[in-house]
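Narrative of accomplishments. A recurring question from our advisory board has been how the design workflow behaves on a single, concrete structure rather than in aggregate. To address it, we present the structure tokens for one chain from the evaluation set, followed by the sequence designed for it. No filtering or post-editing was applied between the two.
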């Protein structure tokens, strides 16, 4: 049994006080009570906001904090443990967050049990803010903020020694499981969404399923730390009541790979084709300009194939996640939105062809 709280109702004033004191943000203040409420829409973890009451002067102490816990759903929790999702997020805050210039919440505590199922994250509350919503889409300015943040993750970690850390290495057993389960996921996805996703778009999903060896064995032209689920649901806008434009949360799928995986994923399944199509070239130019400013010169021609291949990450994520996390009404709408946008990009730009070219020249 974990020696830290794994549900919001297990958190008490003493535990939060200890964590904030150890983090050096409490001063001499004492917490006398906490109240909590659920926030967020995550399907693999549960998040809550805690309102803190103090007994004495707490001028510089936080009035609220946020915490993340394992999902209350057994299926989601087992999937997370099998693919080390909770471990990755905790270790991201322990080891990687300080290396990047991307805006992420400051973690006051990051703990995980040896079983990989029980964890807790306690971090700064970035509210009031506007939570990104996959189903509502975003404005162009918000997409631009996100693209800049992607560069702030990819440039500082390009070929960084952290990328060789054991927790970021692919688990052969997990990869083998993913390969073996993917056709089953595609069958579930096909049965569930055949009437909702256009036939030409479902054909993209089928084509990826037919070329799994190419997908799983693909080579990356350069390596950076990836967010892995770089879309609106994992972004907070106008944080601190508008003091800052954006922050990124939910690091359970962080990984090592080409940074354009995040960009292809975001412009495909993240923002939807209506915003992407008229602004695609400008957003790619913005990413190249930010990477160049941060010391990694890139041009749109250089990144094009990697960008197109990145869209397939949206296809595979939508297919696999739909099959193996708890099913909800919003989840169905979410996975359809992701698949639709990613498949449209992949179809328009022949992403599978770009993947085949990459493998032929690897």
């Amino acid at each position: 049994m974990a020696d830290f709280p794994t549900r919001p109702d297990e958190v008490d004033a003493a535990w939060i006080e200890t964590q904030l004191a150890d983090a050096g943000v409490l001063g001499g203040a004492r917490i006398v009570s906490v109240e909590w409420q659920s926030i967020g829409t995550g399907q693999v973890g549960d998040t809550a906001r805690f309102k803190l009451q103090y007994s004495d002067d707490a001028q510089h102490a936080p009035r609220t904090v946020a915490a993340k816990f394992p999902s209350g759903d057994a299926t989601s929790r087992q999937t997370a443990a099998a693919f080390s999702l909770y471990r990755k997020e905790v270790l991201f805050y322990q080891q990687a967050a300080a290396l990047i210039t991307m805006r992420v919440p400051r973690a006051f505590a990051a703990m995980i049990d040896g079983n990989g199922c029980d964890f807790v994250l306690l971090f700064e509350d970035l509210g009031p803010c506007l939570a990104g919503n996959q189903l509502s889409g975003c404005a162009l300015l918000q997409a631009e903020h996100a693209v800049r943040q992607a560069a702030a993750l990819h440039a500082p970690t390009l070929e960084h020694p952290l990328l060789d850390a054991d927790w970021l290495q692919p688990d052969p057993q997990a990869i083998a499981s993913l390969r073996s389960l993917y056709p089953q996921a595609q069958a579930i996805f096909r049965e569930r969404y055949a009437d909702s996703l256009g036939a030409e778009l479902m054909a993209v999903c089928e084509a990826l399923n037919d070329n799994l060896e190419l997908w799983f064995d693909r080579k990356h032209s350069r390596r950076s730390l990836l967010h892995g689920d770089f879309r609106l649901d994992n972004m907070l806008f106008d944080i601190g009541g508008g003091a800052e434009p954006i922050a990124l949360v939910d690091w359970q799928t962080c990984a090592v790979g080409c940074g354009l995986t995040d960009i292809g994923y975001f412009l495909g399944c993240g923002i939807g084709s209506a915003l992407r199509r008229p602004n695609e070239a400008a957003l790619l130019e913005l990413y190249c300009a930010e990477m160049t400013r941060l010391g990694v010169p890139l041009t749109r021609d250089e990144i094009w194939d990697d960008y197109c291949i990145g869209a397939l990450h949206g296809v595979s994520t939508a297919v696999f996640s739909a099959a193996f996390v708890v099913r909800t009404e919003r989840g169905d709408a979410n996975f359809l939105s992701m698949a639709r946008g990613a498949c449209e990009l992949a179809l328009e730009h022949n992403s599978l062809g770009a993947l085949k070219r990459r493998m032929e020249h690897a």
